[in-house]
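Pinned message: reference record for Gp6-like head-tail connector protein
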Amino acid sequence: MKISELTSEMVKDYTGISDDDSDDIVGTLLMPAAKAYITGYTGLTEEQLDEHDDLAVAFCVLVNDMFTQRDYTTSIHRQVSPTVKTILSLYAVNHLR
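Predicted structure (tokens):
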């Protein structure tokens, strides 16, 4: 599945977010933020993201992390999920990481 094909309902199903009150947060805030993170990390364009189906998994994990880790008191040493980092590193063309 391509990132562009994911709907907020599909992402909510993957992440286990069940309340309908979160539709706006997931669809209009977190999904665009996750896509921006992936393009910034990899250096790929949004069109190039759709060439790699496994990036959809990283996308969903990022949305889940963004939704569940909203506490401003979390450790400053918090790292990106190893799953996300591994998948994104496969396609990083900017070599800044």
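Pinned by admin. Summary line: The helical segments are 8-15, 23-42, 46-49, 55-68, 82-91.
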